[in-house]
Amino acid sequence: MAKEKNELWEWTKALLIAVGLTAVIRLFLFAPIVVDGLSMMPTLHNGDRMIVNKLGKPDRFDIVVFHAPEQKDYIKRVIGLPGDTVEYRDDTLYINGKKYEEPYLEEYKNQITDGPLTEDFTLSEILDNDVVPDGEIFVMGDNRRFSKDSRHIGTIPLDKVIGDTSIVYWPLKDIRIVK
């Protein structure tokens, strides 16, 4: 009887440790997320399941998950970092006056015949500020015509960013690292 009791206690301890480690990993290191919507097409698809890395801070062109003003988590691409100027002219991105290529948009740009994928804008037209404020980032969805992003909700405070993501793990046929 004592042996059965001891074995039950060992299994209970192992289960408690496993649950505790899972909670710590999910709370502080990594978490799953499901892409909801089409704002990151063609890079990400509705229903893609991804891993969010909660370590580190976002860098330019990273795909990040953040708490949006609507009490919902959004997934978008970092375009502007604190202190950056951001401008779009003739469907071309300029950051701090320097032209940047966006290869992840080429598929959509090639399909469009009725104007630019991204309408012209400057930060001052959107934010009443010439630069991305300290401690905040400017984000945009890859599906520029159908994305609710910093052009609509403003810059995102870094403390609202959950983490960055680049690994799609579901559906199995679409497992990949996205850039």
UniProtKB/TrEMBL annotation:
<feature type="transmembrane region" description="Helical">
    <location>
        <begin position="14"/>
        <end position="35"/>
    </location>
</feature>
<dbReference type="Pfam" id="PF10502">
    <property type="entry name" value="Peptidase_S26"/>
</dbReference>
<protein>
    <recommendedName>
        <fullName>Signal peptidase I</fullName>
        <ecNumber>3.4.21.89</ecNumber>
    </recommendedName>
</protein>
<dbReference type="InterPro" id="IPR019756">
    <property type="entry name" value="Pept_S26A_signal_pept_1_Ser-AS"/>
</dbReference>
<dbReference type="InterPro" id="IPR019757">
    <property type="entry name" value="Pept_S26A_signal_pept_1_Lys-AS"/>
</dbReference>
<feature type="domain" description="Peptidase S26">
    <location>
        <begin position="8"/>
        <end position="170"/>
    </location>
</feature>
<dbReference type="InterPro" id="IPR036286">
    <property type="entry name" value="LexA/Signal_pep-like_sf"/>
</dbReference>
<dbReference type="InterPro" id="IPR019533">
    <property type="entry name" value="Peptidase_S26"/>
</dbReference>
<comment type="similarity">
    <text>Belongs to the peptidase S26 family.</text>
</comment>
<keyword id="KW-0378">Hydrolase</keyword>
<dbReference type="GO" id="GO:0009003">
    <property type="term" value="F:signal peptidase activity"/>
</dbReference>
<keyword id="KW-0645">Protease</keyword>
<keyword id="KW-1133">Transmembrane helix</keyword>
<keyword id="KW-0812">Transmembrane</keyword>
<dbReference type="InterPro" id="IPR019758">
    <property type="entry name" value="Pept_S26A_signal_pept_1_CS"/>
</dbReference>
<dbReference type="InterPro" id="IPR000223">
    <property type="entry name" value="Pept_S26A_signal_pept_1"/>
</dbReference>
<keyword id="KW-0472">Membrane</keyword>
